Amino acid sequence: MTRKNYVAVMGGAAALAFAASGALAQEYTLRLHQFLPAQANVPVQVLDVWADAVEEQSGGRIEVERYPSMQLGGTPPELIDQAIDGVADIVWTVVGYTPGRFPSTEVFELPFMVSDARAASCAYWTMFEEGMQEEFADVHILGTWVHGPGMFHTADPVEVPEDLEGMQIRGGSRLVNQLLERAGATPVGLPVPAVSEALSQGVIDGTTIPWEVTTALRVSELVSNHTEFEGPALYNLTFVLAMNNDAYNNLPEDLQQVIDDNSGLEFSIFAGGTQADADGPAREIAVDLGNNIITVDAATAEAEWLPLVAPIYDDWIADMEGRGLDGQAMIDRARELMSGDCANAGQ
Questions:
Q1: Sheet strands side by side (includes 238-244)
Q2: Could you give the angle at the alpha carbon of 50 between the alpha carbons of 46 and 55, nearest 5°?
Q3: What residues pair up with 262 in beta bridges, in sequence order?
Q4: b/e per residue, 90-100, with b = 16+ CB within 10 A?
Q5: Which helix (H) or strand (E) holds 5?
Q6: β pairing state of 90-94 and 238-244
Q7: Which of 225, 239, 312, 344 is the most buried (most CB within 10 A)?
């Protein structure tokens, strides 16, 4: 599901809905809260597209108020509870901001697990429907997706794990933090909005984020080395677009249908693919600045990086077993979906 296709599908549905309902006055206001600036890629290319479609398909009966940069208060790790408690009606958040709380989602955050964001986002929604709904029972989930390849952005070059030794690196997830520790780096827990200041003040020596986020955070201006990987990504993060249960249940059935029509598998694929597509333009900024872009080839990744990963997988499977979950089965299912039914997602 590309942005063009998604907009076309949703636009057609909006026209039908509007024709059927007529131009009605706004009756319901939904507050959408998230942590990035309004001009960042995800708010502009994903969340605004979603919100605009909902408003149009409701015939003007739903208004989606957009609150970027935590304007409703709190910190990014509090977003999911804000959706549960009704501080916001809808939130977009990184699931890993609350480590261990939604453990099944971490299957897509394992190092070198994901090769394609669309396929992984498709698999993520499929597995959400198959077995993750109990973990998210306190909210109404609208979409589940991952970003494009996570990578290193550092003051000094990183090609092999030893290059990380002694560095202070903002980790993308608790599983990436384990990899950093095994390489001799010190993981630093920071939400994405804090990365720019931490880099500019020398609090951290680098960060793990995908290319796409570097534009909003000016990362390519703050560090000059970027390490990407051939094949599966160093890591990916999982996201959810989550709605307060009462906010959803209090809508009349026809407006619930509008929300449903813009939720689920196709939206998840669209969101993940849109984030991944934004990697290219962001990478070009680093190229234009003359930064050093290191590409770790598959052979080097297998010889130097993958030995760090096996114990992380083993520990994660054991952790899942302690929670009553079959971690190996989740890994197998995710791989099966990404290479099978979801391999051509969005095409």
A1: 62-67, 28-33, 90-94, 238-244, 139-146
A2: 150
A3: none
A4: bbbbbbbbeee
A5: helix 3-21
A6: antiparallel
A7: 239
Which amino acid would we find at residue 45? Q
- Which amino acid, 316? W
Token duo for residue 210: 């995908």
Helix H or strand E encompassing 322: helix 306-322
Q: What tens digit of pLDDT does each residue of 219-229 get?
A: 999 999 999 99
Report the distance separating Cα 172 and Cα 188, nearest Å. 9
Domains of the chain and CATH, by start: 3-92+116-146+242-277 (3.40.190.170), 150-234+280-339 (3.40.190.170)
The pLDDT tens digits for 47-89 are: 999 999 999 999 999 999 999 999 999 999 999 999 999 999 9
Element (H, E) at 263: none
Q: Is the Cα dihedral 340, 118, 151, 226 positive or negative?
A: positive
Q: At what angle do helices 174-182 and 306-322 cross, to 10 degrees?
A: 140
Closest CA to 291 of 225, 246, 245: 225
CA distance 130 to 128: 5
Dihedral angle sign, alpha carbons of residues 20, 8, 38, 91? positive
Name the residue among 128, 47, 150 with its Cα closest to residue 337: 128
**Residue 53 one-letter amino acid:** A
Q: Provide the 3-class DSSP secondary structure of residue 223.
A: coil
Closest C-alpha among 38, 46, 97 to residue 68? 38
